[in-house]
Amino acid sequence: MSVAYTVAFLNAFISTVVLHVSGQIDIICEGFKTISERISYYGSSGQTVGMLIERHNKVITFSKNLDKLFSFMALMQVFWNTLAICVLGLLIVTSIHNAAGVILARAVFAYCNIMMEIFIYCFAGEYLSHKSKSLGNAGYESLWYHMSPNQTRNILFFIMRSQKQLTITAGGMTNLSLEAFTSIMKASGSYISVLNAMY
């Protein structure tokens, strides 16, 4: 039970931190929208682009620290959960052939829980990556052509810098995304069929 609570706490913590970073990205996008509205109504930017760029730098630093913190944990989760999915899949296949209903129900429940755990990590990485793409769009959609040349240059650098997506990686080897989730599930299915053939 303590292991289950610890894993649930870590999953909730990762989701909360990713949602926090996404909220900061939304604030930056809203800041560019506010600048654009002020330019169109009042003819001046009011809020400086420099403050938004500084906030973007903090988001990038926070995201890198988040990746450093969870990279090894995510790698271990992906590795051990893939192994557990293979074993549970084999258990499900053998219990279907042996008509063991109680074992089948427990194995399916455990299989769904482990699959959901991997999905949370991969979805968090996908969501963060998707939100980071919106930063460049927000900078481009601002009324940069009505700003001073200095602010326009800053927005250009902001757009160039936001092209590098913020991600969560598994051990620095692969980005956690929905594509990674499908590859994990495909690999697990292949391992299950090999184990079933050997069994």
Automatic annotation (TrEMBL):
In the bilayer, the protein is annotated as: Multi-pass membrane protein
Q: Which GO terms describe its cellular component?
A: plasma membrane
Main location (coarse class)? membrane
Q: Where in the cell is it found?
A: Cell membrane
Which keywords annotate this record? Cell membrane, Membrane, Olfaction, Receptor, Sensory transduction, Transducer, Transmembrane, Transmembrane helix
Residue spans crossing the bilayer: 78-97, 103-124
Q: Record's Pfam families?
A: 7tm_6
Keyword Heme set for record: no
Which GO biological process entries does UniProt record here?
A: signal transduction
| GO terms, molecular function | odorant binding; olfactory receptor activity
In terms of PANTHER family, this protein maps to: ODORANT RECEPTOR, ODORANT RECEPTOR 19A-RELATED
Q: What is the protein's given name?
A: Odorant receptor 22c-like
State the organism named in the record: Dinoponera quadriceps
**Name of the gene encoding the protein in the UniProt record:** LOC106748833
